[in-house]
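Tokens help. Consider this.
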Amino acid sequence: VKTSMNASVNDNMITADAKNIASAGAFKVTSGKLNGFVRGRILPKIPYSEDFESTALKVQHSTEDVKFAYPPLAWTGARLKWEVRNMEGNKVLRKTLDRVLFQRAITIFGDPESSDYTIQCDVMSDSARRGRSMGNIGVINQRYFISLVGNQQLLEVSSNHERVKESVPFKWSPRKWYTLKSKVDVNADGSGVVKAKAWPQGENEPAKWTIEVKHKKAHKKGAPGIIGFSPQSLKAVYIDNIKTTFN
């Protein structure tokens, strides 16, 4: 992959430019007959948004007659697990289905020291057998997974399941977009509350949170991200209009 990074090299140090342009790549260093490589990544800063509309779909799919694009290079754990595709005139992020090994994707984009932010995006799942088999799709906020669970029809908050795992019933339909939003409030004593809400895309945002999960020893920091699960890589899940903002 050929790309460019908004950075400079001076006194053996690579420094990212003050203007935050997320990217990643490798620098080749040559001295006489010797050469070496060093890899670098410029992480996107909050506030950050991505709707994929400026992405050029140039890669021919190996098993389908369709062109796609790889996800942003600066994202961690994304390249073979997600792809940008055209859907009814819009460009969206789709979970890949060509490798069962990657049926589950955990992808982060940002500084792991991030805190006190809200993450929001639009999500959707395909289904099989008249809506009886759906995927899971969600966001990551300060090391908490906030997911719409398709087959169980839940909105779930978890973090290392043995530590935190709570859910509430949430009925959602396949092939229909929903907006998912989450924030984490951490108190002075170290406890916290993970808050999340979901609603049909285009409708008014509910005033109340759909779920609020208390955690005695809350995670204080963690990079924002997204998660997707396509059981046996049979049906895709989708994400669009990602936004992260400070609270």
